[in-house]
Design a protein that fits this description.
The complex is a heterodimer of chains A (499) and B (311). Chain A is mainly alpha-helical and 499 residues long. Chain A folds into 3 domains: 204 residues, MetI-like fold; 50 residues; 157 residues, no CATH class. Chain A is built from 21 helices and no strands. The two termini of chain A are 54 Å apart. Chain B has a domain of 203 residues: MetI-like fold (Orthogonal Bundle), CATH 1.10.3720.10. Chain B is built from 14 helices and no strands. The longest helix of chain B has 35 residues. The N terminus of chain B is likely disordered. The chains are: A mainly alpha (499), B mainly alpha (311). At the A-B interface, α1, α4, α5, α6 and α7 of A face α1, α2, α4, α5 and α6 of B.
């Protein structure tokens, strides 16, 4: 080798850059340059209506004006609220994925070959008898259709096993896009959609039942639900206090988790169907605060200092589940309390008008997202995670006499913690940026802005109105939120996973 | 079909062989297990049924005559296969209003744009990944870190300035405006780099001893060995661009340049009451994805489980 070292390294650099060339030119033009551009834009009054080939008003730097305007804009907070509301569906999606993965990772072939044959014979027998009975009983064609579909799945499932089910689960996620969103829009259609066609007979039955019962009896169920909500509130808050006293979580974690767990009760003050219930709800929140304070005050004596982020991941997950569960109870309370009044109306109980209703629009989108999320990438990640759990751990748990459920909580769940953490972080990051496609195709952000998320806001301001500067400010605010989550992940992720 | 597939994600296969070798005779334990497995199958069937039913409704509605759209029954009185022809302008009756819907054109646009983007992106990503993974040059890791750090940014941040750039370049409402910005991807580079890093380094040395240039090494050794990675990236990119909605919606103005998602949106807002035709359009646009997934799912599942998650 007669080259001098410097010559040689220069040659290496040239080769390296030659291969990188096509990519890095594009990278610089469409990623790096726009990035710098976007940063500048956010501080200007750049507006497509003012700055185009026909009109050329002076471009002004407006300092932080875009940001201050954004933060003082009530709609921004509303859309942020919508985004966070839609994100409350994430835990359900993850739980669904986990359930699907656990089911799929079971032995679907029943152990021995003979059992497997029995399984197939059984499936054939069940399916064919079912179909014959339906034919004989002159059931409506619709029932036949769905029964037939079910039998077909069962049959191919026993033969195809895991791969078949996995494929069927994954299809909704894989095809999720404008096409399936429009499909769901039609499914949700209030007067011609199959969902409401299926619901109306059920609701008619419910109307009859509610009308025969005394309304106080029905409403007492609502009171029970309120009691359940308060129980959850107290349980959550006491748990937090307990963990804090044990030194498992930091003060920061207690406060953050506490605020989240108290949030539904405070909102309950506004949403409860009776003022009494509202005050009760506020009272329960107050009692919870006092209890927590008492616990913290008492424990302060033996308190050992812990770092800021101690157990934060686990706390947040716990608090989210508690919060969402309370919200569900709150929603059910409102519905059940009003049930007798609604049922005694002339038409009885009507199925909701889903996407056209301010209150139902967000839950409708969440239901659809849940449907698509069960068999998503998360399920595949969980499947890989489940395969990686060392079998010795299960054997050890079996020797200790652990049942199915105990094995799941004490072996599977902790072993899957890294996967869960990864999934939660990614879902939150994508959730913050999401919701545009669904809202644009299904509701146009409505009704009355109920489904407008932050990404939709960017679209409205930037591409419909043309205020590119202001829209850039929104995207950078969005980036700030995403960055916080990433930072959180980076700082506390490893600790939580090692627990 | 009954043979065990060589799938690493199957701890149960170990257990089942154990059970098989232990005893051939039927034991009460085994019967219990049969019942458990049957229940499992039923549960899985119910879950799968919820996944399938919306698609079943979609296909059946697409075959309904217009008068039966919006009726409670799912089953058409007669199967109208001509609905699919109408989408492409075949058999459109004289009393039929179907202006502005250029479904065949949209179909072609979507495939054309997604294919171009996929080809270009896989090509540029593979070159860059080779440079990052197999070549050694000054400042390489810093540049790679720069690539990585931009992956964290929300795509929306770059979309606004890119729109302004497209306006300045005069590429708004053109295929090039959809293809060129998507042809370069930090994610694709990252994904392929991870794959190329797993190829043993001794191959490079052997090639060097044989006097092969770096280009030959790339073309003849590394590229064929990263086939699974290339296929994974191809599927991701193709589906991602086939489904892409935000950017085409912003960029496209003329109806004949629409891609399927934007076209379907127009279809729904202008001819939405013809649900049968709309469902036929949706069925046809979902179909290629399902076929692609069923054929290539082996690569896709592996790619995702390796941590290559996006979207």
């Amino acid at each position: 080798m007669s080259y001098l070292p410097s010559q040689r390294s220069r040659r290496k650099l040239a080769t390296g850059l030659a291969f990188l060339g096509p990519n890095i030119i594009g990278f610089m033009t469409f990623t790096l340059l726009p990035l710098i551009f976007a940063l500048v834009l956010a501080f200007t009054n750049w507006d497509l209506r003012l700055h185009n080939q026909f009109q050329d008003e002076a471009l002004r730097f407006v300092g932080l004006e875009n940001f201050t305007r954004l933060l003082s804009e009530p709609n921004f907070w509303r859309y942020l609220g919508n985004t966070l509301f839609l994100m409350m569906g994430i835990p359900f999606g993850i739980a669904g994925s986990l359930l699907a993965a656990v089911l799929l990772s079971q032995d679907l072939r029943a152990g021995s070959r003979r059992n497997w044959v029995w399984l197939i014979v059984g499936a054939v027998l069940i399916s064919s008898t079912g179909i014959l009975v339906m034919l004989g009983a002159q059931v409506p064609a619709m029932v036949m259709l769905i029964g037939g579909a079910a039998s077909l799945i069962l049959l191919s499932g026993t033969v195809g096993g895991k791969t078949l089910y996995r494929t069927l689960f994954y299809v909704p996620h894989f095809t999720a896009g404008v096409a399936t969103f429009i499909l769901w829009k039609k499914l949700y259609s209030p007067y011609t959609g199959p969902i409401n066609f299926a619901l109306s007979p059920l609701l008619d039955g419910l109307t009859g039942a509610v009308n025969t019962l005394p309304s106080a009896g029905v409403q007492s169920v609502a009171w029970l639900l309120v009691a359940g909500m308060f129980a959850l509130l107290l349980f959550g808050v006491l748990r937090l206090g307990h963990w804090w006293a044990e030194g498992d979580i930091s003060q920061f974690g207690v406060i953050l988790g506490g605020v989240m767990i108290l949030f539904p009760a405070v909102m309950g003050f506004r949403w409860m169907p009776l003022p009494v219930l509202g005050y009760l709800s506020l009272g329960a929140a107050g009692i919870a605060v006092v209890l927590l304070g008492f616990k913290l005050f008492n424990a302060a004596r033996v308190f050992k200092p812990s770092s800021l982020g101690e157990g934060l991941g686990g706390t947040l997950m716990f608090a989210t589940v508690m919060m969402v569960a309370q919200f569900i109870l709150l929603g059910l309370t409102t519905v059940i309390y009003n049930l007798p009044v609604m049922a005694s109306a002339p038409g009885g109980l009507e199925p909701p008008s889903w996407l056209n209703n301010v209150y139902w629009a967000k839950p409708s989108l969440m239901i659809m997202a849940f449907w698509a999320a069960i068999g998503s990438n998360n399920m595949l990640l969980y499947l890989a995670g489940l395969a990686g759990v060392p079998p010795e751990l299960y054997e050890a748990a079996e020797i200790d006499g652990a049942g199915r459920f105990a094995k799941f909580w004490n072996v599977t769940w902790p072993q899957l913690a890294p996967v869960t953490f990864f999934i939660v972080v990614m879902s939150v990051i994508y959730g913050l940026q999401g919701g545009f496609e669904m809202a644009r195709t299904m509701t146009n952000g409505g009704p009355a802005g109920a489904t407008t998320t932050l990404s939709y806001y960017v679209y409205m301001e930037g591409f419909e109105t043309g205020r590119l500067g202001y829209a850039s400010a929104i995207t950078w605010t969005l980036f700030g939120l995403v960055f916080l989550v990433t930072l959180f992940n980076w700082k506390f992720g490893n600790r939580y996973v090692n627990d | 079909m009954s043979t065990t597939k060589p799938n690493p994600a199957e701890p149960e296969s170990r257990r089942s062989t154990k059970a098989r070798s232990a005893k051939r005779a039927r034991s009460p334990q085994e019967t219990g297990r049969l019942i458990g497995t049957s229940a499992l199958h039923l549960l899985l069937m119910v879950l799968a049924l919820t996944m399938v039913l919306p698609f079943l409704w979609m296909v059946l509605t697409s075959l309904k005559p217009l008068e039966e759209v919006g009726l409670e029954t799912w089953i058409p009185s007669s199967f109208q296969w001509k609905n699919y022809g109408i989408l492409f302008g075949i058999g459109v009756g004289d009393n039929f209003q179907f202006q502005g819907i250029q479904y065949g054109r949209w179909y072609w646009n979507s495939f054309f744009i997604a294919s171009c983007v996929t080809f270009l992106q896989v090509f540029t990503s593979a070159l860059a990944a080779f440079s990052f993974a197999r070549l050694d040059w000054h400042g390489r890791d810093k540049v790679f870190l720069l690539y990585l750090s931009t992956m964290m940014l929300p795509g929306l941040v770059m979309m606004i300035p890119n729109y302004q750039i497209m306006i300045s370049l005069g590429l708004v409402d053109s295929y090039a405006g959809l293809i060129i910005p998507a042809a370069f991807s930090a994610f694709g580079t990252f994904l392929l780099r991870q794959f190329m890093l797993t190829i043993p380094g001794s191959l490079d040395e052997a090639a060097e001893i044989d006097g092969a240039s770096k280009w030959r090494l790339f073309l003849d050794v590394i590229l064929p060995l990263s086939r699974p990675g290339l296929i994974t990236l191809t599927i991701f990119t193709f589906i991602g661009n086939y489904q892409s909605f935000f950017w085409p919606l912003v960029m496209l103005r003329s109806t004949h340049r629409y891609t399927l998602p934007v076209g379907l949106l127009t279809f729904d807002s202008s001819q939405g009451e013809q649900t049968n035709l709309l469902m036929a359009a949706i069925t046809l646009s979902v179909l290629p994805m399902i076929i692609l997934f069923v054929i290539l799912q082996k690569y896709l599942v592996k790619g995702i489980q390796l941590g290559a998650v996006k979207g």
